[in-house]
Amino acid sequence: MLCELPEFSFEALKNLGALFKYDSSAPMLFSSGIFWLLFIFFLPVYVLLKKSKWKMTLFVVLFSLYFYYKSSGLFFLMLIATSLVDWLISHLMVKVKKRAGRRALMWFSICLSLSILGYFKYANFFLWNWNAMVKGNFQPLDIILPVGISFYTFQSISYVVDVYKEKIKPTRLWIDYIFFLSFFPALVAGPIVRADYFLPQLEKNQSASANEVWAGLWLIVIGIVKKALIADYISQFNDLVFNEPSLYTGVQALMGVLGYTMQIYCDFSGYSDMAIGLALIMGFKLGINFDSPYQSRNLTDFWRRWHISLSSWLRDYVYIPLGGNRKGTFRTYLNNFLTMLIGGLWHGAAWKFVFWGAMHGVGLAVHKACKPVLKKIPDNWFTILIFWSITFVYVSLLWVFFRAASFEDSILIIKNIFTDFYWNQIPQFFEARMIWCIMMIALIIMHFIPQRVADKPQVLFVKSPWIVKLVVFLIVVQLVIEFMSEEVAPFIYFQF
User: What residues act catalytically?
Assistant: First the structure.
């Protein structure tokens, strides 16, 4: 027995070491156990180092890079290189006196960032379309998309542009900039954080108050509920409909579309809640990223509430530079359309994303064109219901193109809803998918609760005794275990 112990210990250590290495089939997620195990050890060390800014900064950078390594492997080296190049360019821009020289440096940085993003994300897309035109024999390039590259690329571009515009000064130390770019709560799926909002917080290096810590924990709990409990559960039926749309009736297709509409909200806002909560515990504010978007009564309002960090980024760095609403009515509509087209392409390298973005651009233009008429319509419960219904249906139908594997599948799903729909099948569906339906009904009700009411549970949680907080946490863990699928599903926005 004594002779076998060293062999057993070596094997155990080997297995333990493999757990901390990058595994492409199991990237580290906020909803995975390995992350929370690491974070439990990370947090007390972080608190101890918080009084020394440079020690805290170095520690968080190392942890963030390791987090990215566990998510994307050796691509963490590319993140380091990106941060170093843009930091050096930002300092060169300050030293160059001529505006033309500074502008050239800015565009060099932007083009370099977009070239890297374009290669990893769009090379196969453009090559496929080129080969389709010339009828060539296309063989896809073996390209692995680094997780979160779209998010940190946009952060890097906004930093360089803001330095060029003298909106901010470049960070004195490179490590401060890579802290901003690699900050692990927001690294792989946002929110897209602005340097002028984040870097002053790093400079102040304030610790979180007790209320902020508990508020952060509440957001994490809510994020876990949205993602691991609700989104992952309802996705099991949604995936069946979208993967084989020809096998399902109009009622099932409609439920799949409504299910995905709620799934993508719970999945992405759940991630944002966890990211914002983690940052808040560490003493950093990332800002709100979702504000009950399905309450919107028009598309303009929807994009003020959905993925706020992206829509505001597109407004400030695409729409306004294109001319915004300063060059006449037609240009305003065109700029809206082009901005949403870019937003659609940002989401993925496929024509369905381009179509999705284009149709949102068309919808925004139509809403702006109709504003003079809409202002004359009385604002009562009936008109509110009508405008909300039109917006919700439009957004939900466009999610079909966002999720489906192809245009053909999208059209088939929508066709089934309108041509193969029988009301008498709804009770049968409810009976067969009772838990799914209950979750969906609860989601709809909770989504339309006024914000002042929705905020009360967080206030009560923050003020409650520690034993209540523990009970709430254990209940959530138990519910997740009860309803979780066999494998931890990746966040939808990881692919972007």
Answer: 347
